[in-house]
């Protein structure tokens, strides 16, 4: 997470629709991934517990650990779905910005487990 408020960025660049793919870490250490047009508002909603049926409701509080901006809603949804399929290790590498590890983990998945 870059630290810049996505809400402020959206207001300052209001001429383009923005879609934020975000990941929060829950109290239990699990991750939740979603898409929104306002990451600050969405994280606040998760923490407020608006929907008792949501994944994060019983895992509050949550904190934003990763976000990235798209201008094409289809691309944002595609990346959200991709992230939801990633392993925990791969998500943690993304949070750290460790692209070398992400590539390594991707290769490991394609090759399959090492057999001895």
Describe the fold and architecture.
- This protein is α+β, with helices and mostly antiparallel strands.
- Helices cover 44% and strands 18% of the residues.
- The chain has 5 helices and 3 strands, in the order αββαβααα.
- The chain has a 3-stranded antiparallel sheet with strand order 2-1-3, sandwiched between helices.
- The protein is globular.
- The mean pLDDT is 88.
- What sequence of helices (H) and strands (E) makes up the elements? HEEHEHHH
End-to-end CA span: 39 Å
Shape: globular
Major sheet details: 3 strands, antiparallel
Give a topology summary.
Layout: H1 6-12, E1 19-25, E2 31-36, H2 39-48, E3 63-70, H3 73-84, H4 88-96, H5 99-111
Antiparallel strand pairs: 1-2, 1-3
Helix pairs in contact: 4-5
Compact summary:
The protein has 116 residues and is of the alpha+beta class. It is 44% helix and 18% strand. The longest helix has 13 residues, at 99-111.
What would the keywords be for this entry?
3-stranded antiparallel β-sheet, 44% helix, 5 helices, 116 residues
């Amino acid at each position: 997470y870059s630290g810049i408020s996505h809400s402020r960025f959206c207001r300052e660049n209001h001429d383009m629709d923005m879609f934020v793919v975000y990941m929060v870490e829950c109290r239990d250490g699990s991750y939740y991934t979603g898409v929104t047009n306002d990451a600050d508002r969405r994280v606040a909603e998760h923490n407020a517990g608006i929907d008792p049926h949501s994944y994060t409701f019983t895992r509050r509080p949550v904190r934003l650990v990763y976000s990235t901006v798209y201008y094409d809603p289809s691309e944002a949804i595609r990346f959200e779905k991709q992230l939801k399929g990633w392993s925990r290790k791969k998500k943690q590498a993304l949070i750290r910005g460790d692209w070398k590890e992400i590539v390594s983990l991707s290769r490991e998945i394609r090759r399959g487990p090492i057999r001895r």
